Amino acid sequence: MSQDAPRRTRLAAARQARTDRPEVAAAYEQTRLRYELAETVRLRREELGWSQRQLAERAGMSQPGVARFEAGGTTPTLPLLERLAEALGLTLTVTLGSAQRRSA
Questions:
Q1: DSSP of 26-38, one letter per residue?
Q2: Residue 37 lies in a domain
Q3: In terms of residue numbers, what domain contains 72?
Q4: Domain of 62: which CATH number?
Q5: Residue 55 forms part of a structural domain
Q6: Distance of CA 41 to the CA centre of its chain
Q7: Phi-psi region of 50 (alpha: psi -120 to 50; beta: other; left: phi over 0)
Q8: Would 10 be classed as within a structural domain?
Q9: What is d(CA 37, CA 20) in angstroms, rounded to the nearest whole number?
Q10: Alpha-carbon distance 2 to 88, whole Å?
Q11: Closest C-alpha to 10, from 90, 65, 18, 97
Q12: CA 40 to chain centre
């Protein structure tokens, strides 16, 4: 048995717990969404050739606020997402759906 086997077993158990416990699944989904939003903003900012400071000025934020957002360290509000989308020339689209559809 390789040294990585116990680690893989723990990882598999963690993944299973994520789907077995609703509170874990909800926390995982919230974290996943924050990181996806952060990545979208960072990639677009880099595509435009802007620094975090330039984005902050255009979105009415501080540079540290942009850095925290891009690190996935904050749960953004809709007004913040609207300001970021407008500053980046993006469209903010919110889709609501059933939890069953999301996890499938």
A1: HHHHHHHHHHHHH
A2: yes
A3: 22-103
A4: 1.10.260.40
A5: yes
A6: 10
A7: beta
A8: no
A9: 26
A10: 47
A11: 18
A12: 8
What pLDDT is recorded for position 12?
72
pTM of structure: 0.70
| Token output for 36 | 């996806």
Q: Which of 36, 51, 37 is nearest to 82 (CA)?
A: 37
Domain count, the chain: 1
pLDDT value for 15:
67
pLDDT of residue 29: 82
Provide block-wise average pLDDT over 10 residues at a time, the chain (104 residues).
67 67 80 92 98 98 97 92 98 84 47
- As a residue count, the chain comes to 104
Name the burial class of residue 19, with classes exposed (0-12), middle (13-18) and buried (19+) by CB atoms within 10 angstroms of its CB: exposed
Cα 6 to Cα 19: distance, rounded to the nearest angstrom: 20
Q: How far apart are CA 104 and CA 59, in angstroms?
A: 35
